[in-house]
Amino acid sequence: MNQDCPICRSNSVQLFSKAYYQRSEELREEYRVLRCLGCGFAWTDPRPGDKELPDYYPADYFGDISNLIQELKADTLRKSSPWRMELDKVRLLEEWINGGKILDVGCGPGQFLLALDQRRWLPEGIEQDEVASYAIKALLPELRVWSGSIEAFQGKPNSYDVITFWHSLEHVSQPREVLKKANALLRDGGFVIISVPNFASLQAVLFRSHWYALDVPRHLWHFTPRSLEILLDETGFKVDKHLFFSKAVNFHQWKHSLRSLVSATTHSLVPYYLLKPLLHLLPTVERLSGRWGVMTFVARKSPSSRASV
Ligand SMILES: [Zn+2]
Fold first, then answer.
1. 5 CA to centre of ligand 1 in angstroms
2. Distance (Å) from CA 87 to ligand 1 centroid
3. pLDDT digit string (tens) for 261-294?
4. Residue 183 half-sphere exposure toward CB, CA atoms < 13 A
5. Per-residue confidence at 305, pLDDT binned at 50, 70, 90?
6. Enclosing domain of residue 260
7. What CATH number does the domain containing 284 carry?
8. How many folded domains does the chain comprise?
């Protein structure tokens, strides 16, 4: 393999699987997922450049944003399961810190920012998807949301208490540069919270090209606990905790991966109720293996090793 691992620089790299993106009814694009045998990290090959990437995010990528925001304003969303997932994130965050200046990178339509108690938190968001970020700015002008990338973000250095990446780090072109920038924006001891699919999981091995969380080519990078630890250490962070979070996201991955695999094998769309027994059994096996399909890292900016931007 003519490529070195972007994380640990090992040249011991192998093909993990091919993976596909259905661009249109007629056009199916083929990608390779390459894996480093040193740290387990994997990457999508080829990766679309920054100019091509927006083509892979359709206008409805985040669903019907204006409807979502209307529901939020009308308070009808607050009992829904997507909303409960946002509250789970807030609970997790507040186990470490219960207020301050927070930046959510890849904030989408802004649900997490809205789920924070606005009396204790000063929430800000960055969203590269122009459809989402302009919709929030129009419909929720009270939220501080910036369009664009974190690399171009002009936030005040050393001023943030927390920066979150809820399933966004695997989407950015330069994760090392992004984490260096996050480090520069955080105050000493400030927290970074990163949730990503776990490429070292049982799901990844079982489903291979059908693993829902491969999501090529939008997921440019496929992290393992070891590779994320190396990257955090290199960019000036000290890992506080590595968690299995969230169960809801994990279940979502099981469900869609299983459906994709069974449908491809049987050449028909299998109804959900037929998969239900397996969806109870497989997460139990996963629990016994300890190799969860998602992972969340909580890390702090090390005062002694400030990364330069
Ligand atoms: Zn590696």
1. 5
2. 34
3. 988 888 877 777 888 888 888 888 898 999 999 9
4. 25
5. low
6. 13-305
7. 3.40.50.150
8. 1
